[in-house]
Amino acid sequence: MTVAEWSIFASLMLALLSIVSVKWFSFGRFDNSRPRDPAFYEDPIAARALGAHQNGLETFPFFAAAVLLAEFRACPQNLINELAVLFVIVRIAYVFTYVGNRPTLRSILWSIGFAINIAIFFLPALRKLLPL
């Protein structure tokens, strides 16, 4: 497996860990028999962790498709790997800013992550311009 493919897995795990960690450390407030209980998410940190989790699930399909498209179209693997790892790093920072209630920085990081995704997606179209 390539580094970029492992980054797909890391992106999915990040989306899951962003909410699981809040549920684990809720000290008995989370009831697993009612996992979508709105009362649990009244806590601001839990609500923001849920938002980070949902956003991670929303960004995952495009990231996975972009990486696989670039690989299937034989783009420079090192470039795909570097962009994919950069995306995961930006997403980690995004989760911390989301949970930490830093909305402006969070929006900037989201935009950077989206731009990285766009870059990966359009690598096949730009392949002839890239050094191999």
Defining key terms:
mainly alpha, 5 helices, 132 residues, elongated
Helix content: over 70%
Number of strands: 0
Major sheet description: none
Fraction in beta strands: under 5%
Structural class: mainly alpha
C-alpha Rg (nearest Å): 17 Å
H-E order: HHHHH
Q: What's the mean pLDDT score?
A: 92
Task: Compute the separation of the termini in Å.
Answer: 20 Å
Shape: elongated
Which spans of ≥5 residues are poorly predicted at pLDDT below 50?
none
Question: How many helices?
Answer: 5
Describe this structure as you would to a colleague.
By secondary structure, this protein is mostly helical. 73% of the residues lie in helices and 0% in strands. It contains five helices and no strands. It is elongated.
Any chance you could write out the topology, listing elements then pairs?
Layout: H1 3-24, H2 44-72, H3 77-99, H4 103-121, H5 123-126
Helix pairs in contact: 1-2, 1-3, 2-3, 2-4, 3-4
